[in-house]
Hints:
This protein is mainly alpha-helical. Helices cover 78% and strands 4% of the residues.
Amino acid sequence: MPNELIWILFALINFGMLLLFYRLFGRTGLFVWIGIATIIANVQVLKTIELFGLTATLGNIIYGTAYLATDILNEKYGKKDARQAVWLGFSTLIAMTIMMQVALQFEPGASDFAQGPLQSIFGMIPRIALGSLAAYIVSQYFDVWIYDKLRKMFPSDSYLWLRNNGSTLISQLLDTAVFCTIAFLGIYSPSVWLEIFITTYIIKFIVALIDTPFMYAAKYMKVK
């Protein structure tokens, strides 16, 4: 199955699972999802794939669901809850980074087979995490701020798409610039780095458009 088809199905599964968490657990489900998405995205981003003929990193879809989750919180519960969710994701990533770095310090047993793969994945996490933490806190705070501004400027439900897409598209550009600079500059050649930067934002742009119907579904979903 081609990567492009898997990617589309993967996007639908991710956003569908987010709505399922929200439907089953309400506002708490969104907070939990943001913690999950933050950790998984920072593991998946280590994998590069060929998508639409370009080199891209994985993890952009589930990372995009975190923006949708904060937009839902902002829309239905207010800016305070959205900001609290941002800090939850931030704290979750810090906790994961610390715990895995300590775990790697244990001397593996003679029959251990996991130390090498874990070292390969989580050994890069500190730099990835630093880039992600900086990008996440800057862009998510900006996303919450601009969404709240757009909600006040365009309060009608007919402009829900504008609030959702406008805030996400701008904040994702900021996120991509900060993350790619800290995480990948110097690791890849300048041409590959620029390609990753461009394709990462294009993919995030597409993900932001895909999440629009899910935002409308969440807006009118009856939850406790």
